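hey so i finally got around to running the thing on that chain from the lab meeting. sorry it took forever, my laptop kept dying and i had to restart like 3 times. anyway pasting the input first so we r on the same page abt which one it is
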Amino acid sequence: MNLTETISPAALKLIDDVAEFVRLPAERQERISKRLVWVAEILASSKSIRADLVHAASISLGVSCTTVRRIIREFKEGGWEALDDARGYYGEKMPEEFKDFVRGLHIQCQRSTTGREVHRMLIERWRLWKKSGDAKHALPGYDKPPVAGSKGYPEGWSEDSIMRLRPDDYSLTVARQGGKAAAKFLPSILKTRVGTRFGQIVFFDDQDY
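ok and heres what got predicted. didnt touch it at all, straight out
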């Protein structure tokens, strides 16, 4: 398919990965193309006519002016892929295999707070897979690179979300240093009252006599 027959040259320049774009189903290409045509025109316009163009885009696309502004914002943050509304894959929940893979990365990293480092590693690998198409960069749980969301990476892949998959301190220490080193994270059993305040801890015997 010759893209110049279905999308304006100005909009075509906004697609940084044509190979990825042409792999999409025709109806998704058409929807994204229509949005990109307006994105290109609005971004290239002067402020004096931008409001009129947003209004015209809302009529053409069958959406509100607020939605048109959101489309512009999402394009700026995530590129053309952020305009794909195929939520079946775009908004898919993290596969369990992927979650296990992320937990493994947390264990591999030796820093005490590994959320940012693991997030960076995941995004770099995702970009490599998306760009090269090489299966050696594939991520467990996915059969193809997930589509970027409005932030420029897949939905649900925020740094906070990746950090929430970090194993607790006990599990991390067991994996890295063994059970002996991790013992300090287990609840302690008091064998004496030394050092405790009156009434701080109450012991009782629940055995029936």
